[in-house]
Write a structure and sequence with these properties.
By secondary structure, the chain is of the alpha+beta class. It has two domains: 129 residues, no CATH class; 74 residues, no CATH class. It is built from six helices and ten strands. A two-stranded antiparallel ribbon has the order 1-4. A two-stranded antiparallel ribbon has the order 2-3. Strands 5-6 form a two-stranded antiparallel ribbon. Strand 8 and strand 9 form a beta hairpin. Helix 1 runs parallel beside helix 6. The longest helix is centred in the N-terminal third of the chain and has 21 residues. Bound molecules: protoporphyrin IX containing FE. Protoporphyrin IX containing FE (HEM) binds next to helix 1 and helix 6. This is Cytochrome P450 monooxygenase. It comes from Hypocrea virens (strain Gv29-8 / FGSC 10586) (Gliocladium virens). Belongs to the cytochrome P450 family. InterPro entries: Cyt_P450, Cyt_P450_CS, Cyt_P450_E_grp-I, Cyt_P450_sf, Cytochrome_P450_monoxygenase. Its cofactor is heme.
């Protein structure tokens, strides 16, 4: 439980910091949407409280968290053992077979492989787009609208998913609210992963600029 809860988020945050430093437009848009969402904290010049951060959802922050979790792939594969004879995409899977699947590449990062749609099961049919409109016409981010398996799937998926999102939301807000993350030099910005229990970036240098209010 400690490893699952600690290593996972401490491996995700370095990726978040890297992506934000390398995508200044996204970082600025995220900070702006936080300023608008936590308007009282912004106008009075303090860091939003835990109650304020957890009290509302900021769609762009949800999207950033979802996309960091999808792209960083801190858990790079999943596995399941067939409890009965079955068929997946037309392939026979005998009872007892261990099936391992990757959480990156086609379907997750790029368009899925072309397959005969008639052999696809109903539950595996998904849309391409995670951005949707709510009833008021506002854009919202639905991480599960398209393939996403960062927290696993089904009844044995991650027990701590909600806690992970809570930690991520708090830490991301505090970092982006208080620091501008500047791009690092190319030779310090590798996206090579270090495969430990979870995948962490081989290089994670930061150039933070404290935001003075
Ligand atoms: C970024 C954060 C996290 C990621 C990416 C992550 C990912 C995962 C994945 C991929 C699984 C396997 C699920 C499956 O096979 O379908 C899992 C299981 C699990 N996770 Fe997490 N996790 C995270 C945070 C946490 C936290 C914060 C806790 C607890 C405090 C936690 C506790 C667990 C437990 C207990 C299981 C086993 C569930 C079971 O076997 O029924 N995880 N997690």
């Amino acid at each position: 439980m400690v490893i699952a809860g600690h290593d996972s988020m401490s491996s995700t945050l370095p990726w978040a910091v890297k992506y934000l430093a390398d995508h200044q437009d996204a970082q600025q848009r995220l900070r702006k949407s936080m300023h608008a969402g936590y308007a009282k904290a912004f106008s009075e010049g303090y860091t939003p409280t835990t109650a304020e951060i957890t009290g509302i959802s900021i769609p762009y922050a949800d999207a950033i968290m979802g996309e960091v979790l999808r792209f960083s792939t801190v858990v790079s594969f999943g596995s399941r053992q067939a409890t009965r004879d079955t068929t997946v995409l037309g392939r026979r899977i005998p009872k007892g077979t261990v099936v391992i699947y990757l959480k990156n590449g086609p379907s997750f990062f790029t368009k899925g492989y072309d397959i005969d749609e008639s052999i696809r099961s109903e539950t595996s049919k998904q849309e391409e787009n995670r951005i949707k409109k709510d009833t008021g016409g506002n854009e919202i981010y639905d991480p599960n609208a398209a393939p996403m398996s960062t927290f696993g799937l089904g009844p044995r998926d991650c027990f701590g998913k909600k806690l992970a999102y809570l930690e991520f939301r708090l830490l991301l807000t505090m970092i982006v609210w208080n620091f501008e993350l500047q791009k690092c030099a190319g030779e310090l910005s590798s996206y090579e992963g270090w495969y430990k229990t979870f995948v962490v970036p081989w290089q994670c240098y930061v150039r933070p600029n404290k935001i003075i209010r």
